[in-house]
Write a structure and sequence with these properties.
With 181 residues, this protein is mainly beta. The chain has one helix at residues 4-19; strands at residues 23-27, 33-36, 44-46, 78-82, 87-90, 94-102, 110-115, 118-119, 127-131, 137-146, 152-163. The strands form 3 sheets. It has a 5-stranded mixed β-sheet with strand order 5-11-10-7-8, with no helix packed on it. Strands 2-1-3 form a 3-stranded antiparallel β-sheet, with no helix packed on it. A 3-stranded antiparallel β-sheet has the order 4-6-9, with no helix packed on it.
């Protein structure tokens, strides 16, 4: 049990001795300098400044989280969905859907996009492409944007129509024409 104490004392003395060590310098004939921690012939003791260190600054509160939201009275001047309301697509392979805001969407606001009542993409999705097969009929797109506290900032809806003319439809470009007599 007594062994650790002498080792601790000896280690402490070594640290103290190293911290208080004297450095010697000697200037040679060609102007070069020789440094030593022991006295050298023709050398003079010098004061050596402690080594320069670096301590990183403490992280600021604003660096670790997004910028604070604007006051509670913030509203988007406009929110819009493309395609515009009542747009019609005939035999589409895809329908691109996007939301735009003025001013631009803030980083800490949450966007929820739904098509025909089903959420698409992850929260934050601002564009989505419906791909084939797209059912004929009317489809509704809704977008809701809320702030960090859940306050509603924007709610916009749009409907578009998909037409898929059949073979017997007058609008069909492939409709068979009667043979001339």
């Amino acid at each position: 049990m007594r062994r650790p104490l002498p080792a601790l004392v000896l280690g402490s003395l070594c640290v103290i001795a190293t911290a208080q060590a004297t450095t010697y310098v000697r200037v040679e004939k060609d102007g070069t300098k020789t440094y030593s921690d022991r006295p050298i012939p023709g050398g003079q003791p010098i004061e050596v400044s402690p080594a320069q260190g670096y301590s990183a600054p403490a992280p600021s509160a604003s660096a670790s989280r997004p910028q604070e939201p604007e006051p509670d009275n913030f509203r988007y001047q406009s929110c819009a969905i493309t395609p515009p309301n009542d747009s019609t697509f005939t035999n589409p392979d895809s329908v691109p859907i996007a939301v735009s805001t003025n001013p631009s969407l803030r980083a800490f606001d949450t966007v929820i996009m739904a098509i025909d009542g089903a959420m698409v993409g992850q929260p934050g999705t601002t564009s989505y492409t419906m791909t084939a097969p797209i059912d004929r009929g009317t489809h509704t797109v809704s977008v809701t944007i809320t702030d960090q506290r859940g306050k509603l900032l924007c709610n916009v809806n749009s409907s578009f129509h998909v037409q898929r003319p059949g073979l017997n439809s007058p609008a069909s470009p492939n409709r068979p024409h009667p043979a001339p007599h």
